[in-house]
Amino acid sequence: STLLTFGRELGKTTVECSDTPGFIVNRLLVPSLAEAVRMLERGVATVEDIDTAMRLGAGHPMGPLQLADYVGLDTVLFILQGWHEKIPECGALQCSRNFKKTCFRRENLENKTGEGFYKHK
């Protein structure tokens, strides 16, 4: 409650959430990144089409695969693995069998190396 008051005093909008891995935003966001990888693996759509669909269809400022690159594919994998250990019954938190292979082809680590799903300058 003290933190909620502090946030409001700073002019911020506050929300309450119980203590759970990822709280609200990341708990919804990270599994969507993993699902985008699964869709890519199944050949549902290309990287560009998945990201364009979410930018235009959901109003996101960037698509899930571009965001995964931005966050860091190694970071996304680390988060998913940690959450899966804590909540193994939650299927949305599982990486696909090929997640590492898909994300780290040619050992690309996105913005950190300049190449992930996209080539970065």
Question: Could you explain the architecture of this structure?
Answer:
The structure is a single chain. The protein is mostly helical and 121 residues long. Helices cover 53% and strands 0% of the residues. The chain contains 6 helices and no strands.
**Which segments are poorly predicted (pLDDT under 50) over 5 or more consecutive residues?**
none
Helix percent reads 40-55%
Mean pLDDT across all residues, rounded? 87
Q: Would you list the SSEs in sequence order as H and E?
A: HHHHHH
Number of strands: 0
Shape: globular
Sum this structure up briefly:
The chain has six helices and no strands. By secondary structure, the protein is an all-alpha fold. Helix 2 (25-41) packs across helix 4.
Outline the secondary-structure elements.
Elements: H1 2-9, H2 25-41, H3 47-58, H4 64-71, H5 73-86, H6 99-103
Helix pairs in contact: 2-4
